Amino acid sequence: MAHTTAPAADALEALGPAAVDADTLTGLVAALLGEPPGHVRLRGVTVDPVDYELDAITTAARHWVRGEAVVSTGSTNGGPGSDTDAVRPWSVFVKQVQCWSRHPAFAAVPPEMRELAAAGLPWRTEPLAYRSDLGARLPEGLAMPRALLVEDLDELSAAVWLPEVATRLGTWGLERYVSAAHLLGRLAASPAVREAASRVGHGLSVWSYLHGRLAGQVLPALLDDGLWEHPLLAGPFDEVRERLRDAARRAEALTAELAAVPLLAAHGDACPHNLLTSPGVEGFVLIDYGFFGAAPVGFDLAQLLVGEVQTGHCAEDLESLATRDEACLAAYVTGLRAEGDDTPTEVVRRAHALQLVLYAGLSSLPFEHLGSEPTPALVDLARQRAVLAAYSLDLLDRTGTHDGP
């Protein structure tokens, strides 16, 4: 029988709806450590919120649950403190996901758009991915944490309990980007991963994004003359303003072109901070599966290339975007070929350009900071976003021509 402690039960109350009882936690820790529950006693359990500055509207809470496990390595009658006991630290990450209709920002969505808006952010995908056998289907070089528990909290929320992933520090140089791009190409074309995406993926399409976020927020803002007078935009975005507005007017035509390219699998948010490197693990540990599913070929390349610029955490030289992008695209195509996919390189490049504009370039304006004082840090962020926008539009121009509406 699993041991329980009152302190553990008290600490777990901090998890709110995701709280489990002490017996359940003991069983989870025992599974994590590979020990029988009856050989494990918990002590020093703590629950702490994760310091995470980015607001994810489908995430209700993130917590670290940590402590020590006193593991009886011999007879279960040895008693605490005997020479058959070993003390082992453990750490678990608990993520509560929710329909974004529960986020305070949902109140600003016009009533006539709320059903479409709620469906546009698929909160159920991550719990489904961790309940599935996706981890066994990933190509060699990619791994995902093994969920200790996935629990529905109610009809609009769930909790996922994951072991902490030990990470090793290192900069994202060109070699690491290229390695990630190759593996993301393999993931995209892998028949096994594509089958999983068809079962547990989000089910959205490029049209969902056009008729959702783009139509509801981004396009009207870009075409609003008054917006461009904001001090965060008036300088950094001067050179790309009219080009962005022109792309906004062509958004439907660009989406139609993207919808015609081959549909493969995609992680959906393959920015560098979701591709962890861990001691003893070759390749990457992928986390954050909220947007896992079917997507146009090349989908993950955009987030890999500019995801850190979008979040304001870019430490890379933006002047080298073109060099890094071309190297990543070539590696991604090599990954496709390794899984038997023969989509022409120029089709992948054009799809990547379309996705970079639609999913990153058009929304590059720092909308989330327009109500803040334009500090030097925010002006620098706006400058980086403007470089991103200009690069995406340049790539679009280089890869094809289109008749506007």
Written account of the structure:
The protein is of the alpha+beta class and 405 residues long. It folds into 2 domains: 1-163, no CATH class; 165-399, Aminoglycoside 3'-phosphotransferase, Chain: A, domain 2. It contains 15 helices and 10 strands. It has helices at residues 6-12, 22-33, 114-119, 125-131, 134-137, 174-189, 191-200, 206-222, 231-234, 241-249, 251-259, 299-311, 321-338, 345-361, 376-399; strands at residues 40-49, 59-72, 85-98, 142-143, 149-154, 157-163, 263-266, 275-276, 284-286, 293-296. The radius of gyration is 23 Å and the shape is globular.
Write the layout of secondary structure elements.
Elements: H1 6-12, H2 22-33, E1 40-49, E2 59-72, E3 85-98, H3 114-119, H4 125-131, H5 134-137, E4 142-143, E5 149-154, E6 157-163, H6 174-189, H7 191-200, H8 206-222, H9 231-234, H10 241-249, H11 251-259, E7 263-266, E8 275-276, E9 284-286, E10 293-296, H12 299-311, H13 321-338, H14 345-361, H15 376-399
Parallel strand pairs: 4-9
Antiparallel strand pairs: 1-2, 2-3, 3-6, 5-6, 7-10, 8-9
Task: Describe the structure using short key phrases.
Aminoglycoside 3'-phosphotransferase, Chain: A, domain 2, single chain, 10 strands, disordered N terminus, 405 residues, three-stranded mixed β-sheet, alpha+beta
Number of helices: 15
Q: Provide the CATH top-level class of the largest domain.
A: Alpha Beta
CATH architecture classification of the largest domain:
Alpha-Beta Complex
- Beta content comes to 15-25%
Radius of gyration: 23 Å
C-alpha end-to-end distance: 70 Å
Element order, helices and strands? HHEEEHHHEEEHHHHHHEEEEHHHH
> Per the principal axes of the C-alpha atoms, what is the gross shape?
globular
Low-confidence stretches: 1-6
Number of domains: 2
- The largest sheet has its strands arranged as 1-2-3-6-5
Sheet with the most strands, sense and barrel status:
5 strands, antiparallel
The H-level CATH homologous superfamily of the largest domain, spelled out, is Aminoglycoside phosphotransferase (APH), C-terminal lobe
Supply the helix-strand structural class: alpha+beta
Q: Might you state the CATH topology name of the largest domain?
A: Aminoglycoside 3'-phosphotransferase, Chain: A, domain 2
